Amino acid sequence: MPEIIPVPRPDQQARLAVADALSTSVRGDSFGTLNDVASWLAACQGVAPAAPLQRTRVIVFAGAHGIATRTFEGVGLSAFAPESDAEQLTELAEGAGPAHTMARRTGASIHVVECAPSGSIDVEPAMSTEKFDAAFTLGQTTADAEIDAGADLLIPAELGVGGTSVAAVLMGNFTATEPVVIVGPGSGTTDAMWKTKVTVIRDAMFRIRNLDGIEVIKAASSPSFAALVGFMCQAAARRTPMLIDGPLTATAAVYAEKLAPGVKHWLYAASATTEPSHIKALELLKLQPLLELRMRAGQGLAALSAVPLIDAAVELAGDELAALAAAESNESQAPAAEYED
To answer: Residue 153 and residue 171: Cα distance in Å, rounded?
Structure first.
């Protein structure tokens, strides 16, 4: 198992400085949820108010999920064929597709990290111990490289058909939720696909019923998932804020928090979907999503959609705190009133 660095807490004084100032201002208090975002980022940066974001990076961990090839009575579990993984990778490499479109709109950039494929987790382990160690370390070193290059907001993302099924297996196991309850619509499924999905999730959950922690990750996730977990652990240890936006990334955050307590404080939920695994993961992490976009595209698209709002929250908070400071300064400099006997 690679070494995991203890995770520090964000600066609560900076968070309270922003939150308290905004809550005591009539105008500032009217900004609603944006105040929480501005306070969170101030805590992560350790300054009040937070500085404007300069380098937002989306890190897409791409890897084939073995269960994507599974069928039941001749029907698969996803509206996308497993071959679409390669097509989406090519699109990303060419700077095309919805994620790049949104990244250009927000001034962010995307880096794709290709990971090894996983086994079919309903009948075999996802990966060996050696592959887990390699994937987890890949996530850690990727976080280090991005932070060393100046990233001040990271968006861990994923690409791989079957990702919602993996999330369902892991969160179903983590929360002791039955397969028929934890299964979600994924990329859009027919009744026959839903049956296949439930069957695969049931069998995978049965295989890992007596496992815990890292053993669950090795048995029932994928190298791309292990890399996500390692990435989040390392980024949090290095005091770098992250946005999460999908079922698999939220599930990875749950397991990262289990391995390195405190990771959740460096996370903000950009959006939510209707996947039960996603909802349960955010509840466990005590994260309230900024948006309710219900996007199923992956690749950090929903998180990228939230970046302009975060930029606006930082600017609004900065302007309001400056106005409050100026008002206090004017009051302190005002001459004392003179009274006649």
So the answer is: 26
The answer to whether the CB of 65 falls within 8 A of the CB of 165 is yes
Query: Are residues 146 and 57 in contact, defined by beta-carbon separation less than 8 angstroms?
Result: yes
SS (H, E, C) 238-284: CCCCEEECCHHHHHHHHHHHHHCCCHHHHEEECECCCCHHHHHHHHH
Q: Closest Cα partner for 269 from 99, 63, 37?
A: 37
Residue count of the chain, please give it.
341
Alpha-carbon dihedral angle through residues 329, 335, 337, 338, given to the nearest 10 degrees: 170
DSSP state of 158: E
Tell me which residue has tokens 């290709």: 114
Enter the DSSP assignment of 53.
Answer: P
Q: E strands, 14-107, where? A: 56-62
Main-chain dihedrals φ then ψ at residue 48, nearest 5 degrees: -130, 120
Banded model confidence at residue 341, pLDDT cuts 50, 70, 90 = very low
Give one word for 294, left, alpha or beta, with left for phi > 0 and alpha for psi -120 to 50. left
Please check whether residue 240 is in contact with residue 147, taking contact to mean a CB–CB distance below 8 angstroms. Answer: yes
| Strands, E assignment, the chain | 56-62, 109-114, 153-159, 242-244, 267-269
Q: Could you tell me whether strands 109-114 and 242-244 are parallel, antiparallel, or unpaired per DSSP bridges? A: unpaired
> CA-to-CA distance for 282 and 254, rounded, in angstroms?
8
> How far is the C-alpha of 240 from the C-alpha of 152, rounded, in Å?
6
How confident is the model over 27-86, as pLDDT tens digits? 888 898 999 999 999 999 999 999 999 999 999 999 999 988 887 676 667 767 777 788
The structure tokens 């509206």 sit at: 79
